[in-house]
Amino acid sequence: MSDLEAPLRPKRKKIWVDYFVNFRWIIVIFVVLPISFTLYFLTYLGDVRSEWKSYKTRQKEHDENVKKVIKRLKQRNPSKDGLVCTARKPWIAVGMRNVDYKRARHFEVDLSAFRNVLEVDKERMIARCEPLVNMGQITRVTVPMNLALAVVAELDDLTVGGLINGYGIEGSSHKYGLFSDTVVAYEIILADGSLVRATRDNEYCDLFHAIPWSQGTLGLLVAAEIKLIPVKEYMKLTYEPVVGNLKELAQGYIDSFAPRDGDQDNDEKVPDFVETMIYNPTEAVCMTGRYASKEEAKKKGNKINSVGWWFKPWFYQHAQTALKKGKFVEYIPTREYYHRHTRCLYWEGKLILPFADQCWFRFLLGWMMPPKVSLLKATQGEAIRNYYHEMHVIQDMLVPLYKVGDALEWVHREMEVYPIWLCPHKLFKLPVKTMIYPEPGFELQRRQGDTQTAQMYTDVGVYYAPGPVLRGEVFDGAEAVRKLESWMIENHGFQPQYAVSELSEKNFWRMFDAGLYEQCRKKYGAVGTFMSVYYKSKKGRKTEKEVQEAEQAHLETAYAEVDQPVD
Question: Fewer CB within 10 Å: C terminus or N terminus of the chain?
Fold first, then answer.
C-alpha cells in the first residue's frame, strides 16, 4: 500500500441514528430554517436600532452594562458558588465543541447586552466593538464607509469575542495575521471586578498578549478596539485551477501568494486576499483577490458577480467551475465577497440539506439560508451529537506553510475529506511567548512566505463527512482526531479549540505554551474564579465534583508557588 493509499476498512452496520440523520432535512426545512430566518431578521432590526443611536447613548449604555457585570461579579461567594461562566446557553455557541462545562455548577454573568458597535474612529482607523458584535453587523456598518476590519471572518454569526478569545482567520491573514493580531486594545473585567484596558505597551501588556486563545478564562471581555483598513467597493477575484498530486497542489497554493524571491511584504507582489480549495487529490482552485474601485469593476468587458443573492450558486461550487473552463477573473461586491461562505456554511450545507444547492431550492427557499448553527445544535439530541462526533469532521489544522503538502497527504490517508480549505496566516514573532508561537529559528531558514518578523502558517480546514463514512465503512472519529492532534504536536501545529478535542491535559500543553497564560492566571486572580482553558475545552461532561477538584488543584498550585521562599 502506498503512503497515500487509504487503509481498507470493513463495512459498518447501520443503526437507527443513520436513518434519522439521513432524514434530518425535514426538521431543518420545516423548523430550523423558518426560525433561523426570523432570528436573523430580528437581529438585523436590533442592529439597525443600535446604529441609529448616537455615540453618546451607546457609550452610556455600555458603561451602565459594565457596572452591572462588575456588581454581579462581586456578588459571587467563592466558597459557595461555582466558577464564573457567561449566561449564554450552551447550544448558542457557533463552534462544534459541546459546552459541557456549563452542565456543572457555575456562577453565571450575563453579557447578552454587549452587542453594539460603539465607535468607528476614522482618524485612528479603529472600530471599538462589544464582544457580541458579529461579522455581518460590523461589515454592514463599515463597508459603506469604504472601511473594514483588517481581518473579517467569513461567517456572519462569528462574534468579536469568540474570534478574540478563540480563533479567527480570513483570506487577508497572510498580511495581517489572525483576528486577535489586529486588536489594538482590550477592555477586560478581572476576577476582582476591576475594569482594565490592556494594550501591547501599557502596564497590562502581559494580559494583552495572553488573552488570545484563552477562551475567556482570564477575565470578561467587554470591548475591543480593532484595526480598520481602507477598502474599495469591489474585490477583483482571480480563479486559477491547479492540477497534480497533493504536494504539487500545495506548491501551487503557496506560489499564488508567496513570492519566491522572499519579498513577502511587497503589496505589489502579494494579493489582498488568498484562499485555495482542494476538491480531490488531484484538483484545486487557487483564488487571489485585490480590492478594486467601482469605476474599474464597471469598465466594459469586466464581469460583475453579485454572489450574495440567494439564488446564486454556492460559492465553492462556483469556484469549482474553473477546473472546466480554466482561469477567469470577475468582480464581486466587497461585502458579498467577505461573506461568500455564509449561505452554504462552506460546504457543510450539502450535508445538512443535500438538495439545497439545486436551482429549484435556491430560487424557492434559498432566501432562508443558512440555518443557524446554534439551532442545528439545539435540535439534535445527545445520540445525534455523538454520531456527528464519530462520523463527521470539523477541524482546522494550523501548520507551517512548508508542511502544507504533508498535512494534505495525512488528511487524505487518514480521513479522505474533500473539499479542503487552505488559508494562510502570519504567526508573528512577539516579545513574549504566547500560547501559539512560531518555530524557533524560523527566520534563519528563509523559507517561502516567511519574513524576519513572522512565520507563514496555513489553516488546513477539514470540514465534511470522511470518505469511509460516505462509503458506509467503519470509521473511528475519536481515534482519527487523536491521530490528527498527535500529528500537529509533532509538526508544531495548533488546533483551534472551537472543535471537538481529544487532547489530554499533558498533550494540550505540549501543543500550546502555558507559561504566559498561567502567569497571568495567577497575577490577575483568575485561578479559583475562571476555569482553566484546558478544562473549558475538554471533551465530555463536567460534574460539580470535577469542577471543585480542578478549582482546588489550581488554587493549591497557585498558593504553593506564591509561598515559595525567594533565594
Answer: C
